[in-house]
UniProtKB/TrEMBL annotation:
Keywords: Glycosidase, Hydrolase. The keyword Transport does not apply. Transmembrane segments: none annotated. It comes from the Bacteria. The keyword Hydrolase applies. The lineage of its organism: Bacteria, Bacillati, Actinomycetota, Actinomycetes, Micromonosporales. Belongs to the glycosyl hydrolase 63 family. This is Mannosylglycerate hydrolase MGH1-like glycoside hydrolase domain-containing protein.
Amino acid sequence: MTLTTGVRADAGRHARLRGLALATLDANWEHDHTVPSRTLYPHQWSWDSAFIAIGLAHVRPDRAWRELRTLFAAQWVDGRVPHIVFNPASRAGPYFPGPQFWDSARADGAPARATSGIVQPPVHAPAAWLVHRRAPGEASVAALRRLYPRLVAQQRYLTGRRDAGGGGLASIVHPWESGLDNSPAWDAPLAAVPADEAVMRAYRRHDTAHADAAQRPTDLDYARYVALVESYRAGRYRDEALLGRHPFLVECPLVNAALGVSEYALARIATVIGADPGPHRDRGARITEAIVSRLWDPVTGTFRPRDVRADRLVPARTVLGLMPLALPELPSAQVSAVLAEACSPRFGLAARMDRPLPTYDRTAPDFEPLRYWRGPSWINTGWLLWQGLRTHRRADLAAGLRESLLDLVDRAGCHEYFHPDTGVGLGSPAFSWTAALVLDALAQE
């Protein structure tokens, strides 16, 4: 292939992917937010909207800011940003668990809009900063100024009310809060949650009507998810009661890395709007130190979730352990070790990748290439690692990962996730954050 031919091929792929991504996002726009997909996810999801806003900033910046405003309009009084904001006008079929199951209206400080009672990784401050960077201007500064106090409240909620372990990190109270719902990382903590598949007889799952059951969490997984929601809901989502009775409390590397990165993003936002960036930088440094102190496993050279109830690190080696690479002040020893883990046969990161990045150790005996977060490749976790590689100036590995992510979508479309060996699209087609993050990756030539 000549240089000219190669340039034309790259330009053709760029145009093809950009057109596909933009069409996907436009089709999933729902008057003031973007649904993750028209089949499986007919409402607004928290961290989905953050990723979506990053992509929209390149093509629809006004819509990007509206995406974030709509989400934060449903913020609770205590600062939590719910993981689902329900759309009462949704034209899609019933979603389980829906607004009646969550019953947020009975909780103190909940918004008027029906929402869930749990959160997702706080990737919103970095998203807001990236939207501003992608499309700066007076309107962008004004949007940052309006959003800033809400982002600060989100951080205070997580570092305050959710510090169940007392070590300066946020605890998640449900696997859904990690974003990696059925990751093997949660197997050990979930084993202590009393539930069986009979629990699900009282409910009807709708996800398996739109996706192959072999690609979704099991009924036993869902039984435990339901039991955890019921436990939290029984206390009207008050976090003060967590230490006394809630059966699942885990410090997640991804959630807490996002918490730290958010403080650095807030420092940048503060500089733009005339606030003091210093406290944010200090908190970012403290969160980084706490992650290293509480979640670093020097024996295996990776970060692991901490089961707060059992006060021990969980054994599974998942993509969660790579996420603290996004922290700009991560010590060099941990940076080197995380890179070694990422480049090992477990994950296969390389300057030229022959297979996509999996979400779980592909050498593990219980690796499942089809089932949701137990092996498949996801664009958002790849994008987050890509950001970490760029932060720590590993342009060679960042380029290899970016190319792998774009190849997945070019070959299979904007799927929810992908087979970690073949690259076949899995889950929902026309998935919004896949489209959005492709737009961002395309823009970083």
